[in-house]
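Lab notes, practical 5.
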Amino acid sequence: MFHVKHEGWTDLAGSIGLELTGDQEAQLERYRDLLEDRAIPLGMVAADDAGRLRERHLLDSLRAAPLVQATDTTAYDLGSGAGLPGIPIAIARPSLQIGLVEPRRARAAFLELVARELSLGNVRVLIQPAAELRERVGLCFARAFGDARKAWSAAEPRLAAGGRLLYFAGERFDPASCPEGISVDIRTFPSLARSGPLVIMTRQ
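Output from the prediction step:
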């Protein structure tokens, strides 16, 4: 499938405790190209991010991949948009079945294109609001989704017993903003200075 090794990914992935194959690195580079060529002109990603897609979006999304456990089999990427973080995680964790939840049809069409181009058999594009999802999953991801309470409110009804929300918080995240009655585990990434913490929320 993808056989070209791209320089730089080994060190980037290693900085967040992740190992990638050459095929996975090539898939990420192809996805980066699609973001630049298609998503930016469509307004899905800010034009100012064109020169920093690897670090600002792909590597930032991949922070969650090392937290996917061997027992995790299904997940939702809530409000997937251009596929961040769902697509990078799907590349890094091919055993995880991920539903990209995106009600906007133009964005969903882009996600379907990416899934075809990258031959991502572990991805489904779900063109519906999160509130309409009926199947429960073990993991939810929420990036650029809203504050912690909003993200938990959207994820909690979709989670199976013991399920977790991996919430990408902003730089100014305040742990007091998390809902009450849940377990909160906050992970920081010194190598990504401009990224806020990754917050893992689980029912107590």
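Observations recorded by the TA: The longest helix spans residues 22-39. Residues 63-203 form a domain with the Rossmann fold fold (CATH 3.40.50.150).
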